[in-house]
Task: structure prediction
Amino acid sequence: MNNRPKIKLKLTLTDKLFEILGWFSILAIWVVTISNYNNLPESIPIHYNTLGQADGFGSKVIILTLPFIATILFIGLTILNKFPHVFNYPISITADNALRQYTIATRLIRYLKLIIVFIFGHIVLQTIKNVKENTSELGIWMLPLTLGLIFVPIAFYIFKSINKTK
Result:
């Protein structure tokens, strides 16, 4: 790993759009959370089971942890993405394949950052909606959709990474 090439990647339009959309989404989660905070009751759903039904309730201050965690994850992955030479890869990295592998891996990280923010944002929005409508569920589709949005691109990345053709 120490002898992997260190390459400064140029961002494509897609990369820039993912970054801008991600930062905008982080801001939006904070705005929605803070603007609705005072209208929330003291007790809100804070945990959902695998069927998307609320099975834990707690203080409304807990809703602030969702945008906080999303922000920390987003910033952490943004920093990590600046060092693709330290990532784990399914193949050996050489001078010949480094640019392609780094590009694929950093794009995957950008996509995952965006999906993480969307998932946290959806939970915030759904929690606020549940409180307003006196319901308490995310929906039965939330867990499979979340897993699919995360693991299907990872599988695609692995396939694309080990595939020799461009």
